[in-house]
Design brief:
heterodimer, A: 171 residues, mainly alpha, Rna Polymerase Sigma Factor, Chain: A, Arc Repressor Mutant, subunit A, 11 helices, elongated, B: 257 residues, alpha+beta, Phosphorylase Kinase, domain 1, seven-stranded antiparallel beta sheet, 10 helices, 20% strand, binds zinc ion
Chain lengths: 171, 257
């Protein structure tokens, strides 16, 4: 039996969600499109094995896998081996000159920049929670980590944003 | 509830993840504690700004077109089972397609772990065991491509001695082994790699009630053979014909040893 009807029913409605996630993870229009298309190829192949109807979380899981495969090939340095290393990758809020932040802020979307600068593992949980409005349980499943890790990464992401001069430059 | 307890729950409350008693307790605490209330407000305020100022990127029309074209394309190539033209799609999948299969399917199969308790079917239990090992990243306890390392390791931990062969010449590379439990008895699990796939082979003394020779359980193939007085039960996401040829080959090789 053709998988196309299932794909159209379960995956296509979530193309925006998949693209938004890929766009925030790759931070690039063209790379995001490639990642989502790769994810669609995979989703089409496996949609027959999807039981139940939670196509969104399932598709986002596949997008995330496609992204990490892409990332390993193109930007391996972004993949932190653990949360501690990821914190080291974060731009130290205190190190940024507030005046420079204000200057940058004048030309760009400040808070969006701060989000884009978050280390990958903090950025992905933040996007899933605040933009996709998914539950801890769904995020844990998609990111393949325990719920406790989702909570600690979210706390890190929020802490970094709240202390970012880019956030306050807008005020 | 004190500030320590509340502090750990403030974000979860802001994320609407608390129910019942804990939700009631923290709401009460927030009404009486300015410090925790400020933290809570901080999360809500950040959320409001994120949703107002951070763009949600919708799939551009060009991407819709690309995906539609892909659907039309695969439809024309193989309507029954979407198979992709290798050359055309290699740049997209980068050979990683197979690598992610287990994980993607594992996500789907998660419930199989619960199912087998209600169902004595050994194939279902074997798939659940395979998925659990994959999810926990616990596929291999003794890592070796040398059968003379894997076999003694397993034999020392079991009351039988499972035959172990390397079929690397045929593309099935022995990666190692581990101990599992199948139908409440310890069982030897041999782990093979075939291209980007992982194959688990459960080897145990021949049981009276053999499962059917080939099954699909929640997207995984399960193939079965007997030989050398053993049951050979292979679980993998490789194609059914490859898996069943492989497991028969293993059982025959063991029998002729
Ligand atoms: Zn308090």
């Amino acid at each position: 039996m053709s998988q196309h009807p299932r794909f159209e029913e379960l995956v296509l409605p979530h193309l925006d969600a998949g693209y938004n996630m890929a766009r925030w993870l790759t931070r690039n229009v063209n790379d995001a499109e490639d990642v989502v298309q790769d994810a669609c190829v995979r989703a089409l192949t496996y949609v027959g094995a999807l039981h139940g109807s939670d196509g969104k979380a399932w598709f986002l899981t596949i997008v995330r896998h496609a992204f990490y495969d892409w990332c390993r090939r193109n930007r391996p340095a972004e993949i932190a081996p653990d949360d501690g290393t990821a914190i080291d990758l974060a731009i130290d809020p205190a190190a940024m000159d507030p005046q420079q932040a204000a200057l940058r802020g004048a030309e760009s979307r400040m808070l969006a920049d701060a989000v884009a600068e978050l280390p990958l593992i903090f950025r992905e949980v933040l996007i899933l929670r605040e933009l996709e409005e998914l539950s801890y349980k769904e995020i844990a499943r998609i990111a393949d980590v325990p719920i406790g890790t989702v909570m600690s990464r979210l706390a890190r992401a929020r802490g970094l944003l709240q202390r970012s001069p880019l956030l306050h430059a807008a005020r | 509830m004190n500030c320590n307890e509340a502090g750990a729950l403030v974000a979860a409350h802001a994320d609407d993840e608390l129910g019942g008693f804990r939700r009631h307790s923290i709401e009460k605490h927030l009404r009486s504690c300015a410090g925790c209330a400020t933290k809570h407000q901080g999360v809500l305020a950040l959320r409001a700004r994120l949703r107002a100022e951070v763009p949600y990127f919708r799939a551009p029309p060009a991407l819709h077109t690309r995906v539609r074209a892909m659907l039309a394309d695969t439809h024309a190539v193989a309507p029954a089972r979407p198979r992709l033209e290798p050359n055309r799609w290699r740049w997209l999948t980068g050979g990683a397609l197979a690598g992610c299969t287990a994980t993607v399917l594992a996500w789907v199969v998660g419930t199989a772990v619960i199912d087998w308790r209600a169902n004595e079917d050994v194939a279902v239990e074997a798939v659940a065991t395979h998925v659990r090992a994959t999810l926990n990243n616990h596929l291999i306890e003794v890592a070796s491509s040398d059968q003379h390392t894997v076999k003694p390791w397993l034999s020392a931990r079991l009351d039988y001695s499972p035959p172990v062969q390397d079929l690397a010449d045929e593309g099935f590379v022995l990666a190692g082994g581990r101990l599992d439990t199948l139908e409440k008895r310890p069982v030897a699990t041999l782990v093979y790699r075939y291209r980007q796939h992982t194959i688990d082979v459960f080897v145990r003394p021949e049981a009276a009630h053999a499962p059917s020779s080939l099954r699909t359980v929640r997207g995984f193939n399960v193939a079965y053979a007997t030989g050398a007085g053993m049951d050979w039960l292979a679980v993998s996401d490789v194609s059914a014909d490859v898996l069943s040829t492989f497991v028969q080959r293993l059982a025959r090789a063991a029998a002729s040893q």
